[in-house]
Write a structure and sequence with these properties.
The chain has eight helices and twelve strands. By secondary structure, it is an alpha/beta fold. The protein has a five-stranded parallel β-sheet with strand order 2-1-3-4-5, sandwiched between helices. It has a four-stranded antiparallel β-sheet with strand order 6-7-8-9, with helices on one face. Helix 4 packs across helix 8 and helix 6 packs across helix 8. The longest helix is centred in the middle third of the chain and has 21 residues. The radius of gyration is 18 Å and the shape is elongated.
Length: 239
């Protein structure tokens, strides 16, 4: 089955270039130069991944990403000429999985598309759960309940102060892994390799994006979160 990819960029040359590169890889590309038509495609087409430019003539890429996340979990890659950190953080926080700044190498975009799709398929097949190796001392633990946060691996339910959190399989797995290692710092590298099963790259934004999204759903303040804490330069932990 060939995956369906949405490409939205108001620069026709860039949209055409991505269309050619992705089509040559066997993907079905739905290409648009404005947000209105792109949103209609989101509503009417079964998509597997979206590449969104931020600056569009009508609706910006942030809005499209938010609309996608209301109903879908497929990967979203933000594509923009902006380099401001706040734009990057905003894109990742509202649900983007990756962020590429123009100018870019089309082959790099294709490589990231393949990586995101590979992860997405794996999550759907395995429910995104982290499987504890045989013999591990936490093997028989199915639930953690700490300071109002409850997470149960068997039922795949997570609640905060008795209010259920609507977590994606990936977010659930991240939180479960941090709970398994509560009190200890888990580096971004270790967290990525435990959840995604791939080698971590220095420029990988995936962990940061999902931690930001997880905190948002938990209504955690960015600067002083109560549960998922950042140990700067090291990683994350739950105490």
């Amino acid at each position: 089955m060939n995956e369906n990819i949405l490409v939205v960029d108001d620069e026709k040359e860039i949209a055409n270039l991505l269309d050619i590169c992705l089509t040559n890889e066997g993907y079905n590309v739905y290409k648009f130069n404005n947000g209105t038509d792109a949103l209609e495609c989101v509503r009417t087409t079964k998509l597997d991944l979206a590449i969104l430019d931020i600056m569009l003539p009508d609706i910006d890429g942030f809005h499209i990403c938010q609309k996608i996340r209301e109903n879908y979990f497929y990967p979203v890659i933000m594509l923009t000429a902006k380099v401001e950190d706040m734009d990057k953080i905003l894109g990742l926080t509202i649900g983007a999985d990756d962020y590429i700044t123009k100018p870019f190498n089309p082959l790099e975009v294709v490589a990231r598309v393949k990586t995101q799709l590979r992860r997405y398929v794996r999550y759907n097949q395995n429910d995104g759960l982290v499987h504890t190796p045989p013999g591990d001392r936490t093997k028989d633990v199915d639930e953690y309940n700490e300071n109002g946060l409850m997470i149960n691996k068997s039922t795949h339910v997570c609640s905060l102060y008795d209010k259920e959190l609507n977590l994606t399989p990936i977010e659930f797995s991240i939180l479960w892994h941090l709970c398994e290692n509560r009190g200890n710092v888990v580096s971004s590298e270790d967290l990525f390799e435990a959840i995604w099963g791939e080698k971590y790259l220095d420029n990988n934004n995936t962990v940061m994006a999902h931690i930001a999204r997880l905190r948002e759903k938990m209504h955690e303040p960015t600067k002083n979160p109560k549960f998922v804490k950042t140990v700067w330069g090291v990683g994350y932990k739950i105490e």
